[in-house]
Amino acid sequence: MKQSFHFNHNGVQVSKSALVIHGKTYPMQDIKSFRVAESNTLSSVGVLFMLLGLLLLVEEEALFVVGGFLLLAGVLMRFAHDPAYSLFLTTSDGEKSVLISKDILYINKILRALEVSMTEHWEQSQSFDSTFDSASLNS
Question: pTM above the 0.70 mark?
Fold first, then answer.
């Protein structure tokens, strides 16, 4: 039987039974939750550079020039970078980042596919549980 995918693109596959990211498989039954977070490390470094640059601008002499360069670099890092988005999965092992992309639309498509797959997986397990309960009642 051919497995159908809710999403299959760039090494990421989402089916009713598993999420596969570049060959690493995460069974749906093991996934407790998932979320996306914006990664802003360059933004944080940019703010640090801006603060350091402002402090050095207050100084006289040679540090004034260094402060100006740090301030400029900080502004560029803070406002000119493209954000990256991380997909986090929570399993019994804890939460971990499993995918990073600068394309939020790509990440959102994976999220939608995960939502559908998790719903299908949950409905199937509920159906199995009620079938099992009915069978044990009839015995």
Answer: no
